Amino acid sequence: QVQVVESGGGSVQAGGSLRLSCAASGYTFSTYCMSWFRQAPGKEREGVAHISSAGTATYADSVKGRFTISRDNAKNTLYLQMNGLKPEDSAMYYCAAQRFSWCGGGVYIWGKGTLVTISS
Description:
Order of helices and strands: EEEEEEEEEEE
Radius of gyration: 13 Å
Shape: globular
Oligomer: single chain
Largest sheet: 7 strands, mixed
Number of strands: 11
Helix content: under 10%
Distance between the termini: 40 Å
Number of helices: 0
């Protein structure tokens, strides 16, 4: 079964850190771009960070310098290290596998999400 499953969400105070994980199975994880998206209540889903199969990472301006996306192809796992968290980072965070090795070709698989709540 092809799937990605997120974990690591929770509630922290502003300025704190969280690390999200995404375990992939059922497909060749290493050959696809992987992404983190988030959706806050009443807002559209937005891309947070993406990492190509070659390891090239890109970030939304709102998280640059605070979030780091990484992948461990041996473990079929994607990570998002989030530091300096702000209340506006509160959202449901989704892991996604994109359609190609490069990023920007559209999402192939969505996870169910993990909730991040940041208190001020």
